[in-house]
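Please predict the structure of the following assembly.
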Amino acid sequence: MSDDDRLLADLRRMWQVADPPPPGLGAAMVATVAAADLDEEWELLVLVRDSAGEDLAAVRGLGTARMLSFSAAAGWSLEAEIDGEQFSGQVLDLGDDQDPTDVVVAVETRAGESWSTPLDEFGFFSLVAHARGTLRFTVRFGGVVASSHWVEV
Amino acid sequence: MSENRGAEGQLHESPWDAASGAFRAWRAGDATAVDDLVTTMSPVLWHVVRAYGHDRQTTEDVVAATWLGFVRLHQTIEDPKAVASWLITSARRGAADHARKARRATPVQDEALAARLPDEESAEAIAVLDDESARLWRAVASVDERCRKLLRVVAFMERPDYRSLSQELDMPVGSIGPTRARCLAKVRTALTEGDTHE
């Protein structure tokens, strides 16, 4: 081992102690990979609208509700409304050949907790999830897994 | 990373070896081995992304995005030995992309980000270090930001992929090796100076 390699090893040890990753990082990433199911096609749901940045709630008389809209590259979208622990919304434009009742929407936390429900025949969903802080939505159907980025609520 | 660390947080087996072993086992049909791969490599990816000056939350997001990319593209990794460097390269690219986007969106914030490292965190960091590591921390904090970034990335890489590193750090390929040596020399000088001041 050269002097340079030794100094680099010392630096590595120093950073491991001085700036360690969060204690739950490994578990959170294991959950991320597990949720993404290695055999399935993964895609990202992109946040296209967030009522937290608008006066939408006041206009629509929604009071405390938070509205989020996500879109998938494949063309479909997820509209979600969060009011306390009540999560509801709709998945739109899935295509005529996709039965909405075979589609599952999940609310997931960084700690790996998950609450899920299938859509009804009109593409609507509603569920109660004790999820606060940082969470994301994941939609699964026919080998597709689409997750949003983490959202603070 | 608990299973391959001692009480002092030191590695017993190199994470790169552990990663390729886990990847090989997973490919051979051990479904749980992927968890070992993720647990082993996540802390390494954390340090690599932090080197780019991202805050802790953003760092975690970039690491998660790296794993999701792995889920999508793992079939393209032919050699199990290459899994660690594939992941590190992917994390570095994610970190560099994110830094570029942040600069475009909020130039002021990005400058603030660069200025904040590592001074604001150093008091907190030094508090948990033994004397030797604290000396190192102060020495590293006194060298320029580019050196700090290069050394932190290289410290967590097995065989630095100089070609892609040079693109991200905006340096000629041939200069990475010499730059690494120069940056380490700066740290040594700072260590010596620190000792004479104490």
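Confidence is low (pLDDT under 50) at residues 1-11, 107-116 of chain B. Residues 26 and 34 of chain B are 6 Å apart (CA to CA).
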